[in-house]
Amino acid sequence: MIEKGDDYMHNFNASIDRRHTNSIKYEGMDFMYDTTDMMPFWIADMDLATPQPILDALRQRLEHPILGYTTWKNDAFYEPVKHWYKTRFNTRVINNDLMYSPTVLYTITEAIRALTREGEGVLVNIPSYNAFLTLIEANRRVVVPSPFVFDGDDYKMDFDAFESLCQRADMKVFLLCNPHNPTGKVFTAEELDEMVDICRAHDVFIIADEIHMDFVRNEQGHQSLINWMKPDSKILVTTCLGKTFNISGIPHAFYVTKNRFMKMELTRQMMAAGVGNPSVLALSAIEAGYMHGADWVDAVNDFILQNMRFVEAYVKTYLNDVLTVHVPDATFLLWIDFSKSGYSEDDVQHALQKVGKVALGIGSTYTVEDSTHFRLNVACDHARLEEGMKRIRTAFDWLKER
Ligand SMILES: Cc1ncc(COP(=O)(O)O)c(C=O)c1O
């Protein structure tokens, strides 16, 4: 376990035991796989320690013994967020457009409910972050898929097909994920231009989930849709620090929009649901992370890229006949293709779970059809990742020998 005062700043290869911390990744695995007897590489949190400035700020806040209702409508919230956007993305955010919210998925849910009626469609790229698909269906809306086309190097949108879908009278919302989970795609400024033009022309509201924005490693960097907002334009961006600093166990989020209807509706809805007050610990984490966490984020991205390159090399050496790995420009997730193996997803998942004893994101939960992929979370120490790769190899060796 972590000792108080340990500096995990750049020691990403420290092996941290997460047992007995109620971690979903470890202790909640049976929810997805009916067993906890596996090495987990599935859910998108990191096995890396949260950076020291945040841990220190949380400890310091707990020195004060009262943890009562808390307000976000002050500079302790606005200033760190504006600072981060300015210094990391050269993006200007103003207080009036910035609102706190309990979680990213809550924001998306309420935005969809405000913009659509039951039975109506919500447009999403496919593959899609699996919670988008379940959230749309749980709210009795319909998933309208806009499939990516993989050109061997990047996942591309078919903008003609996308525009046809936007022209439908019942099409009011496009739920964008940029950077994209699970593929790791980073949308270019040109792609965002085209997307925004099409949506504007056909009166489609863009809800942009940018939760993976701090893991963009290409030259262009993260292009936030905030830069495309005009007064009252139909765009909302939502994100949080959960992925960035591995603090998803402290629920919090925020959103940025210039759309008056959406500001009003989401504020009203948060009041109606009684969830308008932030977590006092989240506010301390936001301030510490956004004011003092930049170096750590740069270092963690270097580490993630090394891990991705390790997986790529491992697959080339041992699994090249069955797997294709594409190292993406963003996220800590690899979307690995097993189509050339010829095995079905059922066979592959059976071998991974029962023979390799390794839990990976199940591809078909990210699509509306069959899948030939699984998702591997590489944000862990090297020894653990190497053991995970050995287990994947064992699983495929077993399939080949069957
Ligand atoms: C794209 C995306 N959006 C949202 C979430 C969850 O965010 P929150 O916990 O704030 O609802 C995740 C978590 O994996 C994610 O990958």
From TrEMBL:
InterPro entries: Aminotransferase_I/II_large, C-S_lyase_PatB-like, Class-II_PLP-Dep_Aminotrans, PyrdxlP-dep_Trfase, PyrdxlP-dep_Trfase_major, PyrdxlP-dep_Trfase_small
Keyword Electron transport appears in the UniProt entry: no
EC code: 4.4.1.13
Family annotation (Pfam families): Aminotran_1_2
Membrane-spanning residues: none
NCBIfam families in the cross-refs: C_S_lyase_PatB
PANTHER family with a match to the protein in the record: PROTEIN MALY
Name of the protein this chain belongs to: cysteine-S-conjugate beta-lyase
Organism: Macrococcus carouselicus
Origin organism lineage: Bacteria, Bacillati, Bacillota, Bacilli, Bacillales
